[in-house]
Amino acid sequence: MEFDQKEETPFILPEKKEKNKKTLAVYIATGVISISSLIFGYASYQATYFKDAEIKKLKSDLEEANTKLLRIDSLENQVKELETSLAKKTATKVEPKKEKKPLAKKVVPAKKAAKKTKIQAGKAQEKKPLKK
């Protein structure tokens, strides 16, 4: 079979029409709007992601601080308990008092006592520092 070129083509191709400037402007505007909305959405996602990460960090810091405070409170309670137990021990502990026996006074003759007082007075004068 021979193909006759004169016959009509089996597919009808529509002719290209000139694009209207208005529709082109609409396409550009919708493209800009969609791109800007994507950028805004990504930025808001990043902001919430970083905000969530910061909130998690702050929560962990708060938990650490709470555990430290609880530990400090327990240590303070232990110190108070030790102080009270020490106070009880000292209150119940009675030191035995030693009774001193009265010492017999030595009788020093009057002449020896006078010499000792003069010697002691002379030593006290020697020990005084001289002012310059």
Helices, strands, pairings?
Layout: H1 21-92, H2 110-127
Helix fraction bin: 55-70%
* Tally of contiguous helical segments: 2
- What is the CA–CA distance across the termini? 147 Å
Largest sheet: none
Note the main attributes of this structure:
68% helix; rod-shaped; 0% strand; single chain; 132 residues; mainly alpha
What does this entry look like structurally?
By secondary structure, the protein is mostly helical. It has two helices and no strands. It has helices at 21-92, 110-127. The N and C termini lie far apart (147 Å). The model has no long low-confidence stretch (mean pLDDT 77).
Briefly characterize the structure.
With 132 residues, the chain is mostly helical. 68% of the residues lie in helices and 0% in strands.
